[in-house]
Each structure stands twice: as C-alpha cells, then as structure tokens.
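Lab notebook, bench 4. The sequencing result for the construct came back, and we need a structural model before the next group meeting so we can plan mutations. Quick request posted to the team channel:

Model the 3D structure of this chain.
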Amino acid sequence: MVPQVAGTGNPDRSCGAGGRRCRESIMQKARETVMSLTGEREVLRSAPVGVFDSGVGGLTVAREIMRQIPNEKIIYFGDTARVPYGSKSRETITKFSRQIVHFLQEQKVKAIVAACNTASAYALDEIEKEIDIPMIGVVKPGAKVASEATRNGRIGVIGTEGTIGSRIYTTYINEINPDITVLGKACPLFVPLVEEGLWQDPVTDEIAARYLGGLIDSEIDTLILGCTHYPLIRSTVGKIMGDRVTLVNPAYETARELKALLEAENLLNEKKTKLGDSRYRFYVSDMADKFQTFANSILKYGILSAEKINIEDY
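Done. Here's the predicted structure in token form:
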C-alpha cells in the first residue's frame, strides 16, 4: 500500500471532476515521496559511526565494533595532544568533548560513542541533549554487565581520577542493585604506561601490584576495567587479581549496546562495504605516526593513515 502524502488528502475528493488523470498524478507524487524517504534512510544507514577517546584507549571499543557489527563504517578521533583526561576538571573535559563532537558531526556521522570513561562520566549527559543524533558512553554498559557478573555483591572499579571521583559507576550499579558494594581505585599511571606501549613490562607490573593490593584485600569478586586503555594491560591486571575475580571490559558490552541502538533507530548498515571503499578513518590531535603504529599493533585491519587536525578549531 502506498502511504498517503501530507497535503494530498483523499485523491478522489481532491480531484473532484478531474478524474483518473488527476488521481494518477497524486499517487505518482506519493510514490516519489516514499522513494525519496527510502533513499534518505539508506544514506543514513551507510553513514559512519563516530568514536572518540582521549588517546588510543578507545581503539579497544572500536575493535569490538569492528568485530560485532563489521558492516559499520567508523570515524575515530583520538585526542593525543591533550591526553590524559582523567586528571582534568569537568569543565575542561566537557569543552574537549564538545569540540570533538562538533568535528564528528561535520563528518556526517549517524551516531557517536564516547569511548572514554572520563568523558562518559563528565560530559555525556550534557552533550547528548545538545545534538540530534544518538550518543552513548561506556559506563552504563560496564555497570550493567558487572552487576550481573558479581556473586558476592562486591565490585571493584579501577579508572582515572576523574572517573573514580565522579562515583558514576557506583551510581549506575546501585540503581540496578542498591545492595551491591562498589569500591573504586584511581590508577592514574596506567594511561601513560599504555600510551607508551608498556603493556607487558616490569614497571607496569610493579605499579599495578601497588594499585591493586587494596582491592585484593577487600574480597571483591568482580573488577571493572573502568578506562578503555586498561584492556590493553588486562593480562597484567588478571595475573595480580587472580582467577577468583572476574574482569569486566565495558568495550564488549558497549559494542552490543551500539548495535541494539542502531537497530532500534533503523540505522544499522546491513550492506557490505564495496571493494576499495575505506571503512575506517582515523584522526588525532597530535603524533599521527605514533598513533598509526600503535593502532596497527592492536587492530587486525591495516590503518593506512591517521590524519592530524587542529581540534581547537571546532
């Protein structure tokens, strides 16, 4: 059935004595309108998803999106000139995040993922009210899966000073289950260690042991890796915490939530990318060559280039 087009009304009534030719003209306009709307929807479905982080950590989220919804195009921005975010104020993080969102909007993305726990904690709620495309963070998905995973009701969270200080994980977890105890530990040196590529290094082992000792003694059974950099040192954290503690990587659950969101909004891209088309584009605010080398070490998809832009222009 061809839907009625606004303004045409009932063709029989609108045409009066005009007869068949008039009715055919109106119905043709209706078909053209439907085809136009269908075409616009197809354009939206094929648009990229924007993903951003303070640096390279958000690549762990991008990697999960690539795995779980491989037809989606991605535009990634890493704010490598201003990393880390965790020690900065709410106002500064919101300013930085707003600039990045403006940049991604200019790239015509259909949805945005704040693949940074600090940005998710400080800026997400405010910025998502300012834009007309869907935006999600990484905190809620991580809180949800941790709440489901714990057996003794004691969950640990490691993250930046900003994320832990915001108590955002505690808020979301206690909304799900107020009986769960949440213990947070800021681990500010983890981000620079990851950014330097020291994933498996004696220095990282020593610092991790110092950070995590108190959480071991607190008898948690679930630990949220509350920064998207931290999955890159997951083996180190897991070795220290032991087999009794379940490690939660919010990146996996975030990719699942993104897929559900795109399906609900009728934005999921079900068409495979044509040969020769670039599915993934990467931008940074500094050190493009270093970022490219790093990205190629954790993504199985070759990163041909990373372009440096002046994010302050946005």
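The chain has two domains: 45-137+253-313, 139-250.
Will bring this to the meeting.
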